[in-house]
């Protein structure tokens, strides 16, 4: 078994205070190993998105800690500070909508993530094209997002998430805008990425049709992790 | 990868439209500067071209460019006798507006001190300088007169023998150069009836005086042409220009002349300063203030344009932050677009100005230093304008992509 890429301990998140207090997370603890693809399930309002934004170093928890790739990046309610450097090296994001930058072509959307991480432009382009080829969308490299189908856009988004070879990939309902077949293809893609590239992949999903693709399921309800 | 250029390429239509708008605004700023420069240049062109060492004017007046100045024509000869003076020439200047060939021609009449001055110093673009004592004129091309064309001024008909360029008065009227006698004849021209009445009145005054009763021949003389009446002085002149001999200190000559009771004296530089501080000053300040306002308006409009462009990209900026982009990537994106907008706007302003400014009724003089200064201002307001967009971008949270 690979060592855990991400390890969360007693994560608790409270929004508001006194009468307006809402407890979004009630002490969630879990870990995900490299090469493991995990589904994060649960109804709306269960706390999935809050958990994902804490793992993505966008929101600080009220208490608890997170260790990613051996680095303790979150410790209690301490301000996160500027975690951009850590994020660009260790975390890749995929969203419900592909969220591609509209004024860049498919290959440029991947390339920009690499250049942000200081990879020279020429090398970034070469590797971006390789990634698009790996994900089966090389023929769409020079098309802008509006010229791509939803499935193609999500593949480009996956390629962008993989751009800097992150240890952790977080996906927030990446198949919500896709039909069943294309949704499954994307889920299989995550599994392939996790298994072949050794990344830990956490996918928030409502889509129960492709759960067999995942190595493990985490069920959330009312801010609590039911099964880990 | 240059994100700014890629965004511009994607939104090319709106960017071009916006840039043309900014360009038109900057063209007005450029034009106001050019009008200001043209105003100063027009006002001082004659003083600079004549390049006299001293200007002698009516006592306690500021000279013919600032107010009415009238001096006896004989002062020209008196000045020649001052030690250190190498030359003096009378200066006659006035403005007339006459009908010619079915249109109104407004010109500033300048008298050349014939026969010493033929107008050889004028910037001729066609024809020649004056070579006869009467009935020739050199016209600025802004007057729209052709070489060889004749025009009736008072009792006489004058022929255009030369054309100049850029000889414009401070009021924006083209200059026409005559011999000083012709210029005075045009200035003092009256119709036949008023001349007859003036002569009759003169005869009556002489006839009523003792000398007229003693010498009846004087009555007849007084009723003739004023040029034949010795006691009548020739028409006054506006000023007299003085050149000093080589090695002579103009200040010393000026001190001598300043001691006279009927004249004031200025150097060319002083005359220039008086002109700019006087009639030109208010126009100059008005244009300057208007220009400053336009620059401020341009900066505000550019800031709003850049802010709006940034608002359009808030989601993309949040995404870039989530991906870990440094602030300099985002600042660079906004600042480069602002500079591009300013630079292209400036280029459009210059290109359009080249075609449009010559159509203006007054000269719009665009000089290299002014262009450089405006370029610096445009860079400055581009940077300032990007500040609002950058402020907005810095406040965008990476988490906005997730919400």
- From the structure provided, what is the oligomeric state, counting identical versus distinct chains? heterodimer
CATH superfamily of chain A: P-loop containing nucleotide triphosphate hydrolases
The residue ranges of chain A in which pLDDT falls below 50 over 5 or more consecutive positions are none
Morphology call of chain B? elongated
Q: If you compute it from the alpha carbons, what radius of gyration of chain A comes out, rounded to the nearest whole angstrom?
A: 17 Å
Largest interface: A-B, 31 and 23 residues
Helicity of chain B, in percent?
40-55%
Mean pLDDT figure of chain B = 88
- What radius of gyration of chain B results from the CA coordinates? 31 Å
Distance between the termini of chain B: 28 Å
Main sheet properties of chain B = 10 strands, mixed
Helix-strand layout with pairing:
The complex is a heterodimer of chains A (228) and B (403).
Chain A: E1 4-15, E2 22-33, E3 37-41, H1 48-55, E4 63-68, E5 71-75, H2 84-90, E6 91-94, H3 106-116, H4 121-134, H5 150-162, E7 168-172, H6 180-197, E8 200-204, E9 216-221, E10 224-227
Parallel strand pairs in A: 3-8, 3-9, 6-7, 7-8
Antiparallel strand pairs in A: 1-2, 1-4, 4-5, 9-10
Helix pairs in contact in A: 3-4, 3-5, 5-6
Chain B: H1 3-10, H2 12-50, E1 54-58, H3 75-80, E2 85-100, E3 103-112, E4 124-127, E5 136-140, E6 150-153, E7 156-164, E8 174-179, H4 180-188, H5 192-208, H6 210-214, H7 217-222, E9 239-244, H8 250-258, E10 263-267, H9 268-277, H10 281-312, H11 314-322, H12 327-356, H13 368-395
Parallel strand pairs in B: 3-8, 5-7
Antiparallel strand pairs in B: 1-9, 1-10, 2-3, 2-9, 4-7, 5-8, 6-7
Helix pairs in contact in B: 1-12, 2-9, 2-10, 2-12, 2-13, 10-12, 10-13, 12-13
